[in-house]
Specification:
Elements (H helix, E strand, L loop, with lengths): L6 E5 L4 H12 L3 E6 L2 H11 L2 E4 L5 H14 L5 E4 L10 E2 L2 E2 L2 H26 L11 E6 L12 H12 L1 H8 L4 E8 L5 H4 L3 H9 L10 H13 L7 E4 L9
Parallel strand pairs: 1-2, 1-4, 2-3, 4-7, 7-8, 8-9
Antiparallel strand pairs: 5-6
Helix pairs in contact: 1-9, 3-4, 4-5
Length: 253
Amino acid sequence: MDIHGTSALVTGAGSGLGEATARHLATLGAQVAVLDRSGDRADAVAREIGGQSLVADVADETEMSAAFDRLAATQGSPRIVANCAGIGTAGRIVGRDGPLSLADFEKVIRVNLTGTFNVMRLAAAAMQSLPALEDDERGVIINTASVAAFEGQIGQAAYSASKGGIVAMTLPAAREFSRFGIRVNVIAPGIFLTPLLYTLPEEAQAALAADIPFPHRLGDPSEFARTVQFCAETAYFNGETIRLDGAVRLKPK
């Protein structure tokens, strides 16, 4: 798919991997919709890249439906959707204070897994009515998992479950949408230098980087964004999960 001039939607685009993706797609000539729960952050990024700002909770059916309707009315339904919204709450299944709150577990599943599914289903429904491009392609959906989907650490049961679910639904979704010319792929990033890690001391960041075989550093969000570009541009890449992690394998804790 040629990204230039194409309508794109990036969720969680007010910061971190989503922001980097929105900025990169804009440099490639895409018409980018910047969606985030924070209106201030979405507005700021959208202004800087000449995109459109959308405010919505990815797991809210009504809010996301309204966002897709607004996008369709302004720049057209997106052919590229990058799902980057997510949270990373940690907690042991049974900690010092007893079992993990079920509400805490459900919150992580709601945002990461249900939110991804909500955006994916609405995106695929909108893409079906778009005219076909080369190879009869109509769109591509790129979801974000994590290496924790495969090697979840102690305290990551909820997070790993949410990200593992994203990986697991990739192939059935890609198979289902194939008759409409819609591809579905997943990127599973390792340890990236996002706003959360910026708050850690330099020695803590160095300790995290030391466990990464090569290169010995944290991932740069721009590398994630370029991987989104690959997923969008490469028509034969479908139903797959890319680990983007410097060959790291997470330890138990």
